[in-house]
Amino acid sequence: MKKVVFIANPVSGNGKAKKAAELSASILKDNAFEVSIKFTEYAGHATTLVQQLSSKADIIVAVGGDGTVNEVATGLVGSKTVLGIIPNGSGNGLARHLKIPMSTKKAAECLIHGKLQPLDAPTINDKFFFCTAGVGFDAHISHVFAKMEGRGLKNYIKAILKEYGSYASQDYTISLDDSSSVNQKAFVLTVGNAAQYGNEAVIAPNARIGDGTLELTALPQPNLIRGAIWGIRLFMKNIDKDSSVNTFRGKEIKINNTAQSVDGHRDGEPDTWEYPLLFQVKQENQITVIANSTLV
Ligand SMILES: Nc1ncnc2c1ncn2[C@@H]1O[C@H](COP(=O)(O)OP(=O)(O)OP(=O)(O)O)[C@@H](O)[C@H]1O
């Protein structure tokens, strides 16, 4: 009998994780899986729980958003235990990339009938990310959003509209693998392991989760019209086709700036890093995830 542990973040998705964990656990139990549920008690707890439990489980399922998925997946690096996801956040970028349904019942069925896929575990200055990470306006928004009361898409859009006019592009130098560096003035620099931020907003359309490379998308300072076009292109999944946008690809991406440190984001959660920034994929860190399709 396969052993499945659900790790649910009770604060994700405005508190709906308990119900989602219980419903999905009961569906797996009815299909002859041995199930248990653990709830996180603080930020970072999911990684500790996974490190304690992974040797006793076949599958560990993150019930939450990308922040919870990040913590569970981080704990799985170096183990053979498979990652499952019951999406319960506001963006659910990695779950959407994996075509996992947003309905809890269907996502639970996907845990039973889905396909195993290799998932790279890239790092930014030695901290893992699985979906996207980067610096610039989106990272700034993740820091502003973290200080707001309440979460959800509505608050996220509120933060974007409030900060848009006052945020200025920065000068960066970018080097890929062993190549020489290029100078890039950018409003947003996002590194994709998976393609999207969440909510089907695709910032790195050619990112593939198990191909051992990262895709960097650089957006210059936009005017209002350009910003609106990018908004449409994110959802049309073709931001890379815009003539103002530069994309880069590598196993190792270095980003530097004259500042000492920078506010970044890892899988949508705010983080602060020292320059130079090193985004890196290593084959030995790859884990396995349950997807709804092989086209990831
Ligand atoms: N018990 C807890 N109390 C407070 N914070 C927690 C707890 N468990 C986990 N967290 C933190 O909650 C944060 C948000 O979690 P998560 O990203 O899963 O949900 P979300 O913000 O609703 O979804 P999304 O990232 O898709 O917007 C994570 O950074 C995680 O570390």
TrEMBL record:
Gene Ontology CC terms, in alphabetical order: plasma membrane
What does the record list as GO biological process?
phospholipid biosynthetic process
SMART domains to which the protein is assigned, alphabetical: DAGKc
What's one GO MF term for it?
A: metal ion binding
Name its species.
Flammeovirga pacifica
Q: Which Gene3D superfamilies match?
A: 2.60.200.40, Probable inorganic polyphosphate/atp-NAD kinase, domain 1
Keywords recorded for this protein, A-Z: ATP-binding, Kinase, Lipid biosynthesis, Lipid metabolism, Magnesium, Metal-binding, Nucleotide-binding, Phospholipid biosynthesis, Phospholipid metabolism, Transferase
**Does the keyword field hold ATP-binding?**
yes
Protein name listed in UniProt? DAGKc domain-containing protein
- Report the InterPro entries cross-referenced here: ATP-NAD_kinase_N, Diacylglycerol/lipid_kinase, Diacylglycerol_kinase_cat_dom, Lipid_Phosphate_FormReg, NAD/diacylglycerol_kinase_sf, YegS/DAGK_C
Needed cofactors, names only, are: Mg(2+)
**Domain DAGKc, chain residue ranges per copy:** 1-128
Looking up Pfam families in the UniProt record yields:
DAGK_cat, YegS_C
